[in-house]
Amino acid sequence: MIRQCTIPSLISSSFRRPAQLCLRRLHDLTSSKPSIASVLHSTEQLPQDSESSKSLTINGFIRSVRKQKRFCFAAVGDGSTVQPLQAVLTPAQAEGLSTGAAVTISGLLKRSPAGKQQDYELHASDVRTIGEADPASYPLQKKYHTAEFLRTMPHLRTRIPFNSLLLRLRSHSISRLTSFFADRNFVQVHPPIITSSDCEGAGEVFTVADQSSQKPPPPSGQHRREEPFFRDSKYLTVSTQLHLEALAQSVGNVWTLSPTFRAEKSDTARHLSEFYMLEVELSFVDKVGEVLDVVEDMLRDLAQSLQESRLGKELLQAKRSFLKESWPRITYTEAIRILERAEAEQKVDFEFKPDWNNGLQAEHEKYLAETVGKGSPVFVTDYPQAIKPFYMLPSASDETVTDGPTVACFDLLVPEICEVVGGSMREHRLQQLVAGMKNRGMAKGTQQDFGSLNWYVDLRKWGSVPHGGFGLGFDRLLAYLAGVSNIREIVTFPRWVGRCEC
Q1: Backbone angles phi, psi at 331, to 5 degrees
Q2: How many CB atoms within 10 Å of residue 399?
Q3: 122-134, pLDDT tens digit by residue?
Q4: What CATH architecture does domain 161-193+237-428+465-489 belong to?
Q5: Gene3D superfamilies of this UniProt entry (predicted)?
Q6: Which side of the chain, N or C, has fewer Cβ within a 10 Å radius?
Q7: How far apart are CA 17 and CA 27, in angstroms?
Q8: 96: Cα within 13 Å, side-chain hemisphere
Q9: Is 311 exposed, middle or buried (0-12, 13-18, 19+ CB in 10 A)?
Q10: For the chain, which residues make up each domain, given as ranges?
């Protein structure tokens, strides 16, 4: 008879005791040196007339030092908040301190004298320099630095308070989104980064190759050139959607937050070569409106959590439009008519004239977000089938109203950033999917052979169900929430055409 054991019973008491002691010591170590954010937050809870003082030790980095005859004042930050904590030092304690130096300071936290900018300050009893910063060479002195200048040193720019705030925004958002999907029984998955196909069909892919396969053959010709690592061409993923569809037919609703790569040479404030996409696939959904509901609920939940957090209060231009009662939903055809009418009434002069067959340009999306949404997000649905990928499910379009067949898809547009989410219902019927792929010239010869996409067609052969999903440009979303106009400021180490510094 096999004895059944729970996991805790497999851990001996002799192991648990040292582990618990270790955890207590770790707790004592971290709690004895609180973050500057927690120190400042604790002072907000004290009465205005409180004269109490508290002994504490902090770790941080010198943002600036003002040296006077009797006292010196150091602004200390640790990345946990944009606000520094002012430390009051003696000239001897401040000797050798400079902007950028890493320090550990112990002392008494006291209320500042009346008229000071900060309510509390740390009167130092001990100052230790942990890591020096040469003031002659340290590039981030206390002055204004342009975004262009900071992009030249991505390994250092997160030391700027606002850039560290953006890192915390990213962390908070990931945590909240993870909770949102977990609460709704979505399964988080890790689809592959290296793939056999171009999901979007745009050809803007990076090809993967090992170094040995790139070496030219020797002049003698005696040695054969090595075969490619994967036997044939493979690519860095442009979207994990196709793999998510496979997983959704196994475990139900799934989601992922994964890096995505596109070799498009767009040198704009909205494009990167490497970025993060949050992608979701839902099984047993019949209408694209059900997918839209998930998008709206997800973004509302994130915005609400930010509004209630200290992090949200620090965002200088935090967006509240996600919390408005309802988001407009218009069809693509209605969007084109709105744009055409705006031009006819001379409200706007577009560089690219609205054309039903050519899709929406960035200037069109911006106009729709600002006018139809009136500052809030707006959904645009039912785009022309001819300008969308092969996997989208046709929608019931009235060709007396539209200029051709449409698909059950959508984009979510927000002011300033334009499109942040795109999604659709997927074609789940085998015959219709195969016919559509053949019409696009995706079959090899006259056979029903779709090469690297044969496995995707297989999904429709056995137990295929109606399903849909979406992809959210995670970095674009963060840029919108933070009020940042250029996506390159949101990504810590941005890569775009011609640029990959470190």
Answers
A1: -80, 165
A2: 9
A3: 999 999 999 999 9
A4: 2-Layer Sandwich (3.30)
A5: Bira Bifunctional Protein, Domain 2, Nucleic acid-binding proteins
A6: N
A7: 15
A8: 10
A9: buried
A10: 53-143, 161-193+237-428+465-489
**Cα(58)–Cα(37) distance, integer angstroms:** 11
pLDDT(384) > 70: yes
Both tokens of 141, joined, read: 């002195």
Taking residues 320-341, what's their average pLDDT? 88
65 half-sphere exposure, CB direction, 13 A CA radius: 22
* Spatial distance between the Cα atoms of 402 and 162, rounded to a whole number of angstroms: 47
Q: Which CATH class is domain 53-143?
A: mainly beta
Residue 228 has a pLDDT of 77
Least Cα distance to 414 among 350, 488, 354, 328 occurs for 328
Token reading at 79 = 């990345």
Spatial distance between the Cα atoms of 441 and 68, rounded to a whole number of angstroms = 76
- Mean pLDDT across the chain: 87
Distance separating alpha carbons of residues 77 and 160, to the nearest angstrom? 10
Angle at 136 (CA atoms; ends 133, 139), nearest 5 degrees: 70
Q: Quote the pTM value.
A: 0.86
Spatial strand order in the sheet of 194-195: 194-195, 234-236, 207-208
